[in-house]
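Researcher: I'd like a structural prediction for the single chain below. Treat it as a standalone chain; there are no partners to consider.
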Amino acid sequence: MGAALAAAGASVLPLELKIARAPGGAVELAWLLRGGATYALEESADLRRWTPVCRGIRGEGEARRRREAQGGAEFFRVAATPDPEGRVQVRQLVDDFSWPLAADPSGQERRDYRRLNRLDAERGAGGEGDWSAEIAGGRLRLRAAKGGFAFVFNSLVGTASSASTLSFAAPLPAPIRTEWQMPIRAMAVRAKGKGKLKLELKARDNRVLWERTLPVDADAMISFELSLPEPESLSQVKFLNCVGLGPCDLQIDAVELIHSAPGWLAEDPLRYAFAASYGTLLGMEDLVSGMTRDKARQEPGAFDSLPAAGFQALSAAMAADLGVISGEDARRIASKSVAALSAAPRRGGLPPHWLARGRPVNYSTVDAALALVAALEASAILDLHEQEAQVLEIIDGIDWKPLTTPALKASHGYGADGSVLPYVWTDWGGESAMAQLLRLLQSPDAPLFVMDPRPPVFGRRGFIVELGALFAPQLGWDRAPDRHGVVWREERERMLAANRAYFPKRRPGSAAARCGLYGLSVAEIIDENGTTAYLEAGLGDHRVPAKDGGGWIAPHYAMMSAALDPEGAAAFLLRLRELGMLGPLAGLPESVKAGNPGPVPERWHSARVSLNAFFNTAGLYHAIRARGGGRDAVYAIARVHPRLRAALARMFPEK
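Model: Treating it as a single chain, here is the predicted structure.
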């Protein structure tokens, strides 16, 4: 027993195992260790296959639990070893109650995340009789008098009213092949207090699909792991509810789903993260319109992203190349995405950045470039000749005259009122390079935009130097200089080294330094109240100082740069998964606050955004191909497609 704990990284301390039958027919295991902790398993569990490991239900409350452990109990989750088929448990946090329940029942506050759980899906509270449901200090407290009850519901997909449901047999979106799926076979909850806690899985119409009532009578947190019915019987699950049955006074600090993943997938961090990231993006596709919404939390059609339509198409081509989906499904997805992009309104030939219920919000040259280059490459990779012609028609229809100043500066685009924006691209970086590429795709002989070529890119914000490398080898993989003499591969390598050195140097002893987390880029961050803000973090340059917002990292940067060091990226991903921040249904976090002293990050934001989902998906695809030395379909098409080759040759002239 001590050897098992040592292998898991725990202190080897005297302990005693007691097994007793608990109320309800479960088997109760008590590890008496510095205060003790209790774990309940199903009666049918084969105890010979269970071993203790030093991992608790991870999440925002982990730092608090570690502090508590120093003065009392240390908690060890009882986790199953791989089964005979070589499958491995991976865990998806549903809620760790890190911010209060929404004060505004309508949930319309612009930067209020409180009505959302760790799946970026809706949650809420209710009850009957004398009841209360409150969240404070990273814990949910349910209280109800006799005859009443209190509950918190968690939608597992989108808003409570949306039609989307979750299949426990195939929880990743349907086109993803069976061999890449990670069925849900169990769930876990941590609770203390006194009373009965009922866990429910419900359908959209509130039909109970499964339920289990747990008697709780404990002053310290107890971890319950509960087996579920065969996943095939839970094909349309909408809600996971925690219900306190009166009389009760219960505290809950985490609820998780437990997936059963193929061993080869769980043990390959790059492919595991690709499946989770691509599943996140694919789950934002509107199967009716072909559009992709900007954020997972939104209703289809409420706020669609035109770049994400291109991202959806190119990601489908990448997924097909890796065998995640079939070629037929990839062509279907790309065709619908290109059709949606082609049908969108335009101004001066430029497609909009976003559509709010069909109404254009603004028109951006760089976002048009992202949408159209991605769609063009996807169409060419998948041999969709009709769709390729549609994309080229849009590119050829852009009127660059009003968007180009007499000094050959490119405008950012058009505002909502249709006027040309006064801002122009001045610094040579990933965004301006994509705008230049779009111009040259229309006409490779067009006058080149005038840019300040001095590296580093503005503010040395991570995504700016990495953006072009997602689409073309010349913009980040090759070592040939561009027309300014900039070697993008070298810029990327310098940026990666500087990012990895930042926290050990600037914040020694921080969680980021201890965990090997890095990535200063642009991201949405969140405070303890569930209020979000936009942070433009970066390493700093001669124009702006370094900025990390108090110690925030953006994991998308680590994925965008992953091809430069696939093994280093794999270690980064493993650490996120150990911390409970990388589940199959949510993918990588939007941001992590890890500048605090101590072993684990202070806070993290689990928003699912189409832009970062694509950054992660594309970066991981290139890393997988770089690691294995296989043919990179995106880079290959950029080298041979006539229009792309001609445009890039103008940006990278041969000496």
